[in-house]
Design brief:
Layout lengths: L6 H9 L4 E5 L5 E2 L14 E5 L3 E10 L10 E8 L4 E6 L15 E9 L9 E8 L2
Parallel strand pairs: 6-8
Antiparallel strand pairs: 1-2, 1-3, 4-5, 4-7, 5-6, 7-8
Length: 134
């Protein structure tokens, strides 16, 4: 068994401005971030697919006490991609102290940012970012 899309390839693509995931050839569902099997039907018959960088905020929280290496406050959200899966990332360009329930249902554009590794991680990584659509 091989991974069609490894985390390193996913991360490199994000840093190059591409948002990749996996599309299942059995059920048609998308899996993001990449995994070995389809998140819907567990099929291994997957192909790499470019994901549109669009979605809708479903829920969020404001982090006021952050782990080592992060500067609070910041907003973490779950966004449903236009293709279906939900992903987690940071809402940018919104004042965390003014974040309220009006954010739920807002359309966003997905981007990414590099994050430095710490003593608890496997090294440097990449995080998704969400910017509100105009």
């Amino acid at each position: 068994m091989e991974y069609k899309l490894t985390y390193n390839k996913y991360k490199e693509a994000l840093l190059d401005g591409k948002f990749l995931g996996l599309k299942c050839n059995k059920c048609g569902a998308y899996t993001v971030p990449p995994k070995k099997v389809c998140m819907e039907c567990t099929s291994e018959d997957l192909d790499i697919a470019e994901i549109r960088k669009k979605g809708e905020i479903k829920t969020f929280t404001v982090i006021k006490v952050s782990p080592e290496g992060f500067d609070a406050p910041y907003i973490v959200a779950m966004v449903e991609l236009d293709e279906g899966p939900w992903v987690m990332g940071n809402i940018i360009d919104v004042d965390p102290y003014k974040a309220d329930m009006e954010l739920i249902g807002k359309k966003v554009v997905i981007g990414s940012k590099e994050v430095n590794g710490d003593k608890f991680s496997a090294g440097d990584g990449v995080a998704l970012t969400f910017a509100l659509e105009d």
